[in-house]
Amino acid sequence: MPDSAPLSARPVIRQLPPDAVNRIAAGEVVERPAAAVKELVENALDAGARSVSVSIEEGGLKRICVEDDGCGMSAPDMLMALERHATSKLAPGEDGRIDLLNIHTMGFRGEALPSIASVSRMSLTSKAEGEDASEVFVEAGRIEGPKPAAWTGRSETGTRIEVRDLFHATPARLKFMKSERAESMAVTDAVKRLAMANAGVSFSLESNGRTTFRYAAHSPTPEGHLERLGSIMGREFRENALAIEAERDGVTLSGFAGLPTLNRGNAQYQFLFVNGRPVKDRMLTGVIRAAYQDFLARDRHPMAALFVDCDPELVDVNVHPAKTEVRFRDAGNVRGLIIGSLRHTLAAAGHRASTTVAGYALGKMHTEEGAAQKEVPLPQPSVWDRSSLFRDSYGSAPPRPQPQHTDWQPAPPVPGMAEDSQRYDAPSARVEAEPGPDSHDFPLGVARAQLHATYVVAQTKDGIVIVDQHAAHERLVYEQMKAQMAADGVKRQALLIPEVVELAEDEASRVLDRADELAEMGLEIEAFGAGAVCVRATPALFGTMDAASLIKDLADDFAEYEEGLALKERFEDVMGNMACSGGAVRAGRRLNADEMNALLRQMEDTPYSGQCNHGRPTYVELKLADIEKLFGRR
Questions:
Q1: How far, rounded to the nearest angstrom, does the alpha carbon of residue 634 sit from its chain's CA centroid?
Q2: Angle 496-502-507 from CA coordinates, rounded to 5°
Q3: CATH for the stretch 222-360
Q4: Which residue from 219, 420, 449, 615 could staple onto 224, CB 3.0 to 4.6 Å apart?
Q5: Cα–Cα distance list, 604 to 382, 411, 444, 465, 611 (Å)
Q6: Any bridge partners for residue 134, and if so which?
Q7: SS3 622
Q8: Do residues 512 and 533 lie in contact, with contact meaning Cβ atoms separated by under 8 Å?
């Protein structure tokens, strides 16, 4: 056995020099140009700026310039701001202590300026009210100045910070930077997120001398906020956004969420802001997915911008050096508030479908300067084409698997709907009698014809509505089934031999902590030793099922989203199948005038009837003005 190392060979503990400390801090706070831009713009907002201009070159690696019209700084304050952990945003209380949980500003660490200056060449020019402008130069942490400077800002006070050759002092970091285009897009995204939360501030961004966007300031009202969001998220979002306003236990939720029929292939258009701070929280994805689970296919995602405001002591913003993550004291309250508010808002929208549906029908999509994408592709057939997911309605594909055992009774058909299910191979079209004088009072109009024994055509006050009778009635039956389940409760079927599912101890603990919640949905579980869950009963609606697979999926959902999405989505899938195959009016079934109008009236009275269970529209509305444009009348 070798001798132990001599005492002199033991590691020596040393105090790191200030330049190394600053470069380490820069690595935590400023990992790329977008992070530097974010920190500088946040400082401008904290200084009371009403106008912020950002200019970058080569993705921000060569040059970053941020200019604002805030309160500015005096020469001594400029020097102090370049010291580590120096900030004007935290002040001691009556007891002389600083409360790090009572944060009312965007920044508070006092690390941004010295961290950026330690890895770049920075010039800082500022003018405070009643004082002359001053300028300070910093290169790799070495400070020159302050000295008098000419103020060329557009306002009497403000600050201008120019950062050149970012990471020149740490060349190894440059090897990990992405392409100029990728870094420019990251800067654009960072500034847009801050612009979304500050509608009363004008923003502009230039890249390599070209204007990327320019947003005018809007009034601090919901309408003004929606205008700003529309400028960033696109005109379609502005036209199809639902306002949200709710409060629970000291937490306020506001913002806008898109209709289910306005959806995307990923979640990049879902934004969360906490006390005005843009954050990325994995809880948001699960919460929105849970709120929209009845209305969208699993590979489609809605658009939303949600703003959570609460007492700073209810949220910890000091979790991450870059302040991109937060931790709520009562995450369950926030989660429940968001889900409940979204569902209530979607229900209040009734039968409304997004205006983009008509745009697709007319072969046009609105695009505008400043929209998130230059081209908006037509929806993929796998999502919008009814023949791809409900081909069984047309008799050209086998039906999807049905539950093997259930006591469920299909919901009754629409009142006045005939039981005859005769199918017609030949197209059909019947013009009905002239509508009565009150026909224009109906949002979906009055039925005038049925085409191809599948589509109901109705006349409205200022256009026409075309309804997919199967998709529409499928949603109606599905909502009736949900209401019946809510009234009667979920029936359980006890397992003859309880099934034991082996999990990791932390996974089992997460599932067992939600045992009461799962029991309300018919899944009865209990602990079975360390790291095991015993399943004693499952929802009768599911019939024979793989309980072990479901429990494992729930464990993953609770870990990632803090929501039991697997069980809820299983309910959605089974009930959707039953609504589609058991109670819904089939395509190819001829309807008389009373039946068609009964379908339209019930759609108007049923929440979520503007889309089927997978987010596809149940009807298309074409305005008379759009139709006239097709024929050159406008």
A1: 38
A2: 120
A3: 3.30.230.10
A4: 219
A5: 28, 18, 7, 13, 12
A6: 126, 148
A7: strand
A8: yes
* Secondary structure class of 477 (helix, strand, coil): helix
pLDDT of residue 181: 92
What is the chain's percent helix, strand, coil content, to nearest 5?
35, 20, 40
Measure the CA–CA gap between 367 and 612, rounded to whole angstroms: 26
CATH number of the structural domain 18-88+102-213: 3.30.565.10
Beta pairing partners, 57 = 63
At position 476, the amino acid (one-letter code) is L
Pick from 293, 246, 241: nearest CA to 271: 241
- State residue 616's pLDDT score: 78
User: How much is the pLDDT for 51?
Assistant: 94
The residues near 91 (Cβ < 8 Å, ≥ 6 apart) are: 98
- In the chain, the amino acid numbered 289 is R
> DSSP state, 353?
-
Q: Tell me the C-alpha to C-alpha distance, in Å, between residue 9 and each of 5, 12, 189, 606.
A: 6, 9, 51, 79
Rounded Cα distance between 302 and 236, Å, is 12
pLDDT for position 392? 33
Q: What's the burial of 426, exposed, middle or buried (CB within 10 Å: 0-12/13-18/19+)?
A: exposed
Backbone phi, psi, residue 306, to 5°: -115, 140
Q: How far apart are CA 56 and CA 33, in angstroms?
A: 9
Domain positions in the chain: 18-88+102-213, 222-360, 386-634
Residue 316, SS3? strand
Q: How far is C-alpha 327 from the chain's CA centre? A: 18
Residue whose pair of structure tokens reads 């015993």 in the numeric block: 534
Whole-structure pTM value: 0.69
Contacts of 409 (CB under 8 A, 6+ apart): none
Among 3.30.70.1560, 3.90.550.10, 3.30.1370.100, 3.90.1150.10, name the CATH number for the domain at 386-634. Answer: 3.30.1370.100
Contact call for residues 202 and 216 (beta carbons, < 8 A):
yes
Beta strand extents in 311-400 (DSSP E only) = 315-316, 327-328
Please tell me the distance from the alpha carbon of residue 296 to that of residue 360, in angstroms, as a whole number: 18
In which residue ranges of the chain is pLDDT below 50? 365-411, 416, 418-427, 437
Beta-bridge partner residues of 301: 264
Question: What is d(CA 580, CA 565) in angstroms, rounded to the nearest whole number?
Answer: 22
Secondary structure (DSSP) of 179-245:
-HHHHHHHHHHHHHHHHHH-TTSEEEEEETTEEEEEE----SSHHHHHHHHHHHH-HHHHHHEEEEE
Distance separating alpha carbons of residues 336 and 589, to the nearest angstrom = 42
Contacts of 75 (CB under 8 A, 6+ apart): 131, 134, 136, 146
Give pLDDT, residue 629: 80
pLDDT score of 171: 77
| pLDDT value of residue 100 | 61
